Amino acid sequence: MAATKADGMPIISKLYCSSSQAVLVVRKRPHVVSGGGFVVTDCSQKVVFRVDGCGVIGSEGELKLRDSSGEALLLIRRKGGMVQALSIHRKWKGYTFDYEGSQKPVFRLKEPNYSCLVRSNAIRISTEPRRSNKDWDFEIKGYFPDRSCSIVDHLGNIVAQIGVNEEVNQLMANKDLYHVAVNPGVDQVFIFGVIAVLDYIYGESTRC
């Protein structure tokens, strides 16, 4: 995959926007031992992020992304209520925290009601502040459970690609281990926040 330079605008933090392409590894955690979720490591096997799902948090439809020291960087919630139940879309909202601990919305993810079974239906994300004149800023291309998909911006540029190395694919048919290539200038916290939601949508490690 060619490393296309992004626009350099961080969504959560410029501290997690690398000047070069970053290839990170996701390893799912078993529910029985650690309550599920997944760990993200770099090429040196150093932990970069940890994602806690409802098995850890104890609240369905809620995810938390932490840094290597355990500090929460991102809280992600699935919207509920009667209006949401009647909507044709399921919606998620991602929040970061300010210095006083208040929550600040940073992105919204919209998925079709039956997107788990229909591969052609797009999953789209909008950020705050907005980046385009469309009603979305990023889109998922491909099918996450196959570990063959990309996150693209509103211009069609790939900002991150999710895949499985051939060697890993031969050893682990259940795809508990996969890599994510994040292009230069792209906010890695945002990327793995989106991946956490995809993991939940398709009933994987973050879901109870």
UniProtKB/TrEMBL annotation:
Any single Pfam family the record assigns to this protein: LOR
Family, as annotated: Belongs to the LOR family.
The name this protein goes by in its record: Protein LURP-one-related 6
Organism: Salix brachista
The organism's taxonomic lineage, starting at the top: Eukaryota, Viridiplantae, Streptophyta, Embryophyta, Tracheophyta
